[in-house]
Design goal:
Layout lengths: L1 H41 L3 H50 L3 E5 L5 E4 L1 H7 L3 H4 L13 H14 L3 E4 L5 E4 L5 E13 L2 E10 L1 H60 L5 H28 L2 H5 L2 H16 L3 E6 L9 H20 L4 E8 L2 E8 L6 H7 L2 H12 L3 E6 L5 E8 L8
Parallel strand pairs: 7-8
Antiparallel strand pairs: 1-2, 1-6, 3-5, 4-5, 5-6, 8-9, 9-11, 10-11
Helix pairs in contact: 1-2, 6-7, 9-10, 10-12
């Protein structure tokens, strides 16, 4: 608004000075030239020249009058346009939902719109001419003045205040509140003005905090659910292994004793006992597999590394896909819940390879360095696109990410059709995570 006013008035004043200075000279020169031309062409005498001079003078006066009204008309139109622009800008400022505050070079307030009155609780008359410090908490005032002065020196047109962070404002009642602000500067009537547009983000910050707390509660609930599930799986696996497994083993031994002590005269009974023995062998094997899938006892008894080695070996035996396991260093020891989480992540990764990858080779790398544990599972299978996983709602990968996030880690899945898949997991370790 200030720039429009300064430019229009300056041009109008300049045009007016030109007309006042050069207008009479131009008119007198034109008049003299015309008289000389008439006298030379027609040989008029003095009295005849008087009449010609009157006519020419009247014509020149009419022309000057037309030029004068034309010039003043342009100025009136410019003034009207300027007033209209002022009115529009004033209406915009007054009706804006964001607070708009302007300050001069000494950082004293010269503009304070109604939204700013509502936001800060100050009436306009009370803050005009006051330093901007009245709107800033005392502990931030020195830094705020420095930032404003630095921005004025840079000559930049505008920028966001506070970077990506949130600033603090001070209401008339002493209450602090969060704000977002942008600042701009311009010149008006030869002076520099700094204009700040502010938005109260109290409600947004409250909603973000509630969302963050809700997400934290959900993470704690999910972590508790995972812990309870692991404990229950450990209990069931132990009971299957100890109770059911021992009972089946005892039955198997009894059947073997019966076969060894049965007379040769009962081939039907011998065949029946042999069938029972085969079924018991299969049942014992299935029981061990189910128990191991629920919770490998060696994970609790021997630790993560033996459990991972058994898992990789079992994967290769079941699928026929060669799988290499690299451990760096070889003596990694982890406490719960890290050991269980990494075992489950590796188990889910290999399950996905067996079900979907159609791979011919798998490589697993487990490494510990710089206070973090990394797990990488890479296959040379058919790969997939991210859109495919979203459409199919592959909960295995979601569960993998969830386990990682619960421990404050990061999980990434890189894959392209025809170029295999790589799963990378990084878990930062707390000091108490390492087993003694």
């Amino acid at each position: 608004m200030g720039q429009i006013q300064t430019r229009t008035q300056a041009e109008a004043q300049q045009d007016g000075r030109i007309l006042i200075i050069f207008g009479p000279v131009l008119a007198l020169g034109v008049f003299t030239v015309l008289l000389a031309l008439v006298a030379g062409l027609f040989g008029f005498y003095r009295y005849e020249m008087y009449a010609v001079a009157v006519v020419l003078g009247a014509a020149v006066m009419v022309l000057a009058t037309v030029l004068f009204y034309y010039q003043t008309g342009e100025r009136r139109a410019a003034d009207a346009a300027l007033q209209s622009a002022r009115a529009r800008v004033g209406d915009i400022v007054d009706t804006a939902m964001d607070a708009i505050i302007s300050a001069d070079e000494s950082q004293r307030i010269v503009l304070f719109n109604p939204a700013a009155e509502k936001m800060f609780g100050w009436p306009q008359a009370a803050v005009l001419g006051q330093p901007l410090d009245v709107l800033v908490p005392e502990r931030f005032r020195s830094a705020h003045r420095g930032h404003m002065a630095e921005f004025a020196r840079t000559g930049a047109t505008s920028r966001r205040m506070g970077g990506a962070g949130v600033l603090r404002g001070l209401r008339a009642n002493g209450e602090e509140f969060p704000i977002e602000a942008s600042i701009s500067q311009h010149s008006e009537n030869g002076r520099r003005l700094l204009t700040v547009i502010l938005r109260d983000v109290t409600e947004r910050m409250r909603a973000e905090e509630e969302l963050r707390q809700s997400q934290e509660d959900l993470r704690e609930l999910s972590a508790a659910a995972h812990t309870i599930r692991e404990q229950e799986q450990r209990r069931v696996a132990r009971e299957i292994h100890d109770e059911l497994g021992q009972s089946l083993t005892a039955l198997k031994m009894d059947v073997a004793w019966m076969l060894g002590n049965l007379s040769q005269g009962s081939p039907t009974l011998t065949e029946k006992l042999s069938t029972m023995q085969a079924q018991l062998d299969a049942t014992v094997a299935a029981t061990r597999r189910i128990s191991a899938d629920l919770r490998p006892l060696m994970l609790d008894d021997l630790g993560l590394i033996p459990a991972a080695e058994w898992l990789v070996q079992n994967f290769s035996e079941r699928t026929g896909i060669p799988c290499q396991l690299h451990i760096k260093p070889a003596d990694i020891e982890l406490a719960e819940p890290y050991a269980s989480a990494l075992y489950r992540i590796l188990q889910e990764s290999l399950t996905n390879v067996a079900r979907h990858a159609r791979a011919s080779r798998v490589e697993v790398v487990l490494a510990k360095s710089d206070g973090a544990l990394t797990l990488s599972v890479r296959d040379d299978g058919r790969g997939f696109s991210p859109a495919e996983t979203r459409a199919q709602k592959t909960y295995g990968l979601l569960g993998l990410r969830e386990r990682t996030v619960l421990l404050g880690g990061e999980a990434s899945i890189a894959s392209e059709p025809g170029r295999g898949t790589t799963i990378n997991v990084r878990l930062p370790l707390q000091p108490e995570a390492a087993s003694p």
